[in-house]
Amino acid sequence: MSKQFELATINWFPGHMTKALRMMEKELEAVDAILYVLDSRAPFSCLNPKLNIVAGNKPIIYILNKADMADENKVRDWEKYFSQTNRTIVLDSSKSNSTKRIESIVREVLSAKIEKYAKKNINATIRLMVVGVPNCGKSTLINNLCGKARTQTGNIAGVTRGKQWVRLSSGIEVLDTPGTLWPAFDNNLVAHHLAYIGSIKEDVLDIPSLALDFISELILLDKTILEKRYKFEIDSDMQPLEILEKICKSRGFLVKGGEYDYDKGANALITDFKKGYLGNITLESVDDIRKLKKNDRKK
Ligand SMILES: Nc1nc2c(ncn2[C@@H]2O[C@H](COP(=O)(O)OP(=O)(O)OP(=O)(O)O)[C@@H](O)[C@H]2O)c(=O)[nH]1
Ligand SMILES: [Mg+2]
Asked: Which end of the chain is more exposed for a tag (fewer CB within 10 A), N or C?
């Protein structure tokens, strides 16, 4: 996640953050625990530090979702990192039955409360709230918990527009929420990562310049990711634009006169990442965060 190249600025206005947090605070009164869904390809960028404040003493369970598209070793490190303070579950919620563990962990986390009610002979409903940035898989996870498609899903940001309570066969009630939990949006690198994972609506993004930044980042991470997918070799002195041109060429994205169709090439690259066609990638490691924290302390 360390930036060694200049990023284009993303002019991104995530909207009414305070209003969203206030709404969340209100809904939280009715819930027993929070399922905090993070995209395993960029877990840090999905984090909103304010959530812990708003949550007060409600337990938060971290879900490292989309693990099937992420780097296994890095995800394991993230699991360890979050497990120091919270119960953490690594998940591919697109796979049926993958969410089975969640219910038992929820019951474990809420055991004191459940026992208290049982002693008083009260059959209290457990209520959970699912939060996270747009497109991280909140609604998919809820559908998986239900065993049927009760909420709308889709691979673009902002599919869920309002809140929706869903009752599971076990009696647990789960609240689906729109992805309004914006993270540290004053950080341009975070904004880029959110754009790559499909958390920012595409109409505010300049896809060709995003693709050039993405190429720079992938080269630092592992150039073979691009080489394998697009079947060409990358020399150490190759610039991102040249690489985008090679991608256009390998895909046949040329316009009249043999010019490159940069828009198409850029779109293909970003879409390939969103769909997991570039392989298992995690853009942020736990070490990056340690470095960030160290730099913050120096300031
Ligand atoms: N491969 C993979 N795809 C997933 C997983 N979870 C969700 N998806 C896909 O990611 C896309 C977004 O899923 P949604 O459940 O709509 O995400 P959301 O967080 O509810 O999105 P908003 O309502 O827009 O905030 C869909 O295409 C899902 O099929 C996962 O664990 N693995
Ligand atoms: Mg949704």
From this structure: C
Domains located in the chain, CATH noted: 17-176 (3.40.50.300), 188-298 (1.10.1580.10)
Distance of CA 93 from the midpoint of ligand 1 (Å)? 8
- Residue with CA nearest ligand 1 atom 16: 153
Ligand 1 site, residue 92, Cβ cutoff 6 A: yes
Atom of ligand 1 nearest to the CA of 134: 25
Distance CA 192, CA 10 (A): 7
Residue with tokens 């993270």: 183
Q: Is 68 in the pocket of ligand 1 (CB under 6 A)?
A: yes
Nearest C-alpha neighbor of 64 from the set 293, 291, 290, 286: 286
**Ligand 2 center–CA 159 separation, angstroms:** 5
CB 129 within 8 Å of CB 181: no
- Spell out the residues 6+ positions from residue 177 whose beta carbon is closer than 8 angstroms to its own: 24, 27, 129, 130, 131, 138, 160, 163
Check if the beta carbon of residue 112 is closer than 8 Å to that of residue 132: no
